[in-house]
Every structure is written in C-alpha cells, then in structure tokens.
Write a structure and sequence with these properties.
Order of helices and strands: HEEEEEHHHEHEHEHHEHEEHE
Radius of gyration: 21 Å
Oligomer: single chain
Distance between the termini: 59 Å
Number of strands: 12
Shape: globular
Mean pLDDT: 95
Structural class: alpha/beta
Strand content: 15-25%
Number of helices: 10
C-alpha cells in the first residue's frame, strides 16, 4: 500500500464515521471518461484576471481557456491543453489585485495574449463557459472583437444550485460541497476547477451538472425594460431583481426572465410601477447574446 493509499484509507474512515467531511485537492484530470463512438463537441472553460471589476476601467492581465470534449448528455471526456497567457495592461497592477492573484507588474511586462490562438480555440468550440459570465464576457469582448458568433453559458447563474440544496455559488464554495479544494484566483486553476465541477452530478436530481447548464443555455429569455419608471419606484424594482443599466440606450432598470414569466412580469410593471398599461421595450436573448456587454 502506498502512502497515498494509506491517506485515502484514513480519509474514508473519517468520512464513514459521520463526524467528518474530508476535502481532497483538485485532481489533475486529463480524461474523465473513456472514448466511445458518441458524437462529441468541444467546449471551453474560460477565466480571466483583471486590473479592475469594471471593463470600462480595467483590462485583462491573465486569460485561461481550457478546452474539453463533451457529448449532448453532459458527459465530459478528454481535457485538452490550456491556453494561459499574461498581458501587459499598460498601467501598474493595483496592489490589491497583485495580493489576490499573485500577479505582479514583472509577470506581465511586455507580454500580449495571442489573438490567433484565442481565435482558433473559439472557431473549434461550440460553447464558452465561465463562472460569472456576466463579468468575464464584457472584458473578453472589449479585448477581442471576433467573439460575436460564440455561444456563452454561466456555471454560476445558470445551474439551479439553490433548488439543489446548495446556497453558495462561488467556485470555491461549490468545490467544497463537492469534496475538493484548490488555490483560487489564478485563471488556469479556476478553469480546471470549473471543468471538474461540470463533471459532477447535481445532489438532488442526479442530473449531470453540465447537462443542466447546457439545457439552460439553450433556452431563450427576454430582457424587459422598465423605461421611464418613476425614481421613487427604484427600491421596489431593485428588490424584485431589476438592475440599473445607465450604459444602455434605454438608460433604465431591466430584468431577464423566461418566456413563461414574461407576461406576469409585465403585469407587475403595469400594476405596481406605472399604474396603467404601457408599451415597454423587450429584448430577445439567446446563448449568443446573453451576458454580452455590446447592447
């Protein structure tokens, strides 16, 4: 018995006692499932580190894109070579960012992400997945102009973690719930943790995490704009989940809902916000436009 076998035996003893939960270090997995004849597609798990939380003020300093093979039923097969590169933002990296990520000015000085390598990965892939795509995609779009035809999905917001009994949605917390830990805040490690998470099953339904995400990404949704709403209604809108978008042409509060919720949401606005029926802007959203910062 090897030392690793002995440690694993101890971990299992602790777990079966019912008084302990043991975390294992994120494994370095190159293949999750043996190859077979099922048709496969390539996905990308993407993560990036930036100088600021706002794409208007910040820039990418590290990008990781981890390709993996998958089938329509959510099975993950081989994991490819990760594209992971630094880029010089042209300004000093804030001290707080350096402390959080371990990336300093010397790491990025004079470096540039390869546009050709990024474009090739996108060309060969059916979907890009990020754990907070609403953050990552606008930064990515700001840096790379050729992203318009790419489908995106979000492993943080498009998987029903709450209804599956999991309250937290951070990648680190979800790792804990699935029994593994990793050193976060570096792009490649976050990508590998993300793919490992997608390879799991949801705790209550038993459905593949990736299958649940793909199904959600395929569903069309709608962005409903509360254009011209009175300022004294802002707290009511905020409590209901509306977000203020001063950067949009509408410069208004908006919410994204599914087709089955659209009519009831319009009725809420008519009765609680406007006091009458009004014409409201509605945007149709699919996996190609969702999470985009381009309108």
């Amino acid at each position: 018995m090897t030392k690793q076998d002995e440690l694993e035996s101890l971990a299992q003893t602790l777990e079966t006692s019912g008084g302990y939960r043991v975390l294992r270090k994120l494994p370095a997995v190159e293949r999750y499932c043996a190859d077979d004849s099922k048709p496969k597609k390539q996905g990308i798990f993407l993560d990036l580190e930036t100088t600021d939380l706002s794409p208007e003020r910040g820039a990418i300093i590290e990008l990781a894109m981890l390709p993996f093979q998958f089938t329509a039923d959510g099975t993950i097969y081989a994991v490819g070579k990760c594209l992971c590169e630094f880029e010089d933002p042209g300004v000093p990296i804030p001290e707080l960012v350096s402390k959080l990520t371990g990336i300093g000015d010397a790491d990025v000085r004079g470096k540039k992400i390869s546009d050709e390598s990024v474009a090739k990965l996108l060309q060969d892939s059916a979907v890009v997945i990020a754990h907070n795509a609403a953050f990552d995609r606008p930064f990515f779009e700001k840096r790379f102009a050729f992203d318009a035809k790419t489908a995106w999905a979000c492993s943080q917001s498009q998987i029903p973690w709450g209804s599956q009994g999991i309250r937290g949605r951070s990648l680190e917390f979800l790792g804990y719930r699935y029994g593994f830990f990793f050193d976060g805040h570096r792009a490649e490690l976050d990508c590998r943790a993300g793919v490992h998470l997608l390879s799991q099953k949801l705790p209550l339904s038993g459905e593949s995490v990736l299958k649940s995400l793909l199904d959600a990404a395929r569903r069309k949704s709608y962005r409903l704009w509360a254009k011209g709403s009175a300022i004294e209604k802002k707290d009511l809108l905020k409590e209901r989940g509306y977000k203020w978008r001063p950067d949009s042409p509408h410069r208004a509060w908006c919410i994204e809902v599914g087709e089955e919720e659209l009519q009831s949401e319009r009725q809420f606005l008519f009765s609680e916000i406007y006091g009458r029926d009004v014409e409201l802007p509605i945007d149709s959203i699919d996996c190609f436009s969702r999470f985009s910062g381009r309108g």
